[in-house]
Amino acid sequence: MDILVGIMRNVSFLFAYLFIIHILQISKVNQSLIRRIVLGFVLGFIAIGVMSSAFTLQEGVFYDTRSVIVSITALFFSLETALITAFVAIGYRIYLGGIGAVAGVLTILFSFIIGRIWRHLVTKRIHVNQYLEMYLFGIVVHIFMLIAQFAMPNSLGIDVIKDIWLPVLLIYPLAVMAVGVFIKQQISSSEFRKSMEISEEKYRRVFDENPLGMFQYDNKGIIQIANSRFAEILQTNPSNLIGLDMTTLPNKKLVDLLTRSLAGETTYFEDFYQSVFSGHRFYTRVQFMPFISDKTQIGGIGLVEDLTESYESKRQIEELIKTDPLTKTLNRQTFDQLLFQNHTKNEHPISILIGDINTFQIINETFGFDEGNRILIEISNIFKSKVSKNIQAFRTGGDEFSLIMFKTNENTTKAIMEELKDSISHIQINNINMMMSF
Question: Three-state DSSP class for 15?
Fold first, then answer.
């Protein structure tokens, strides 16, 4: 019973070991050689502490939890830390001397060796509950601790084993299990924090350096964070965006899409938008995406693209396809598309005026193409002056211009034709008045 009580008292010193591990945090102390060396000495001094308060079986023979400290250190910590801890413990045991010195040193060596072997060979191959793994590890370490007792002279080792085998195999593996599981959980917690820090840093970097505008909003539609690109698109300061309640924005279409995203739907806005901060109007695409955490929506993430340049490029391309490059008047392709598409009854009657410039080829040959182009531009401007909601003007040939007129009867068409003739007759080239036939 005295042996059991003595060992239990010594086990209590392991709390100092756990406290040091908790304070230093394993993942951090393993980052540099100096820290690993310092930790080795710190844990070695704890081993000295437990040996100093060991249970004495007889003179020169005493027992403590150094095997727990050394084996756990060898299992979880770097080689440098484990070696220093073991050497410090061995040095102190040799200093204490006595008939059990060799057995004591062997116990430390066995604990160190088994810890390293378990670390590199067993842990990667055994797939059991962490409590069972640590308990089995503790059993193996302390079987070898008992084997080390045979190093005592004569039959003393056998007598010692008879006295201590039960409390050693009963208590020490449980101590190893408790300390080992604690450290495993510390490692998992530390690795989780580290992974979270890395993930957060990656998210922040993607967020800040993204060429798209990005913002995150809560489940009330209030912006919580926004990147500088988003502020740049709106031509405002990023601080103005934080706390903005987007449900109060004047653009009702955008607010409706935001509200739908808060209900769990991914929505898209693509249209012109005017910044409430700067008044800047631009063509944009905004994507609202629900943000889910633990199966609960906590808000959303928005992506913003300024499509003004691409929209303008597209508009210019469409204009080139639809218009005559010289006169900037709608071309023959557009004339045909408009003429042959289905028209509703309320667009009737539909009238078409087609006119061509008299003797235009002679003008080109006599006065040159520059003068001919000037005539074409002036006449196209006269035709475009008639453009309205119901009238479109076209250049449908080299010297041919046309009007398509909706809701226009014959009398109105004739009147417009006479107005065109009159206006064109005022165009002169070398005192010659231009004429157009319809």
Answer: helix
Tens digit of each residue's pLDDT (9 = 90 or more) over 297-348: 889 989 999 988 887 877 777 778 888 888 888 888 888 888 888 777 778 8
The C-alpha atoms of residue 214 and residue 216 are separated, in whole angstroms, by 7
Alpha helices in 215-341 (DSSP H): 228-234, 238-241, 252-262, 308-322, 332-340
CB 73 within 8 A of CB 82: yes
User: CA 82 → CA 42, 88, 115, 135, distances in Å?
Assistant: 11, 10, 9, 20
Q: Show Cβ contacts of residue 139 under 8 Å, excluding neighbours closer than 6 positions.
A: 169, 173
Query: Do residues 322 and 333 lie in contact, with contact meaning Cβ atoms separated by under 8 Å?
Result: yes
Beta bridge pairs of residue 62:
56
User: What pLDDT, on the 0 to 100 scale, is given for residue 248?
Assistant: 93
Whether the CB-CB separation of 13 and 53 falls below 8 Å is answered with: yes
Q: Which residues of the chain have pLDDT under 70?
A: 1-31, 189-207
The helix (run of H) or strand (run of E) holding residue 433 is: strand 432-433
Give Cβ neighbours of residue 108 (< 8 Å, ≥ 6 apart): 66, 67, 70, 86, 89, 90, 93
Measured CA to CA, the distance from residue 240 to residue 215 in angstroms comes to 13
Answer whether 92's CB lies under 8 Å from 130's CB.
no
Contact between 405 and 413 (Cβ < 8 Å): yes
Buried b (16+ CB within 10 A) or exposed e, 98-131: bbbbbbbbbbbbbbbbbbbebbeeeeeeeeeeee
**To which residue do tokens 């995406």 refer?**
289
pLDDT of residue 196: 59
Q: Under a CB-based contact definition with an 8 Å cutoff, are residues 257 and 268 in contact?
A: yes
Token pair in block for residue 74: 């060898």
* DSSP for residue 398: S
- C-alpha distances (whole Å) from 76 to each of 81, 83, 134, 246 are 10, 12, 12, 52
C-alpha R_g of the chain: 45
Q: How far apart are CA 210 and CA 304, in angstroms?
A: 11
- Dist. CA 32–CA 375, nearest whole Å: 85
Any idea what DSSP says for residue 323? B
pTM here is: 0.49
The token pair at 367 is 């006065």
* Residue 306 region by backbone torsions, left for phi larger than 0, else alpha for psi between -120 and 50, else beta: beta
Q: What is the pLDDT of residues 46-62, one digit of tens each?
A: 888 888 877 777 887 87
- Report how far residue 372's alpha carbon sits from residue 364's, in angstroms, rounded to the nearest whole number: 5
Helix (H, G, I), strand (E, B) or coil at 46: helix
Average predicted confidence (pLDDT) for the chain = 84
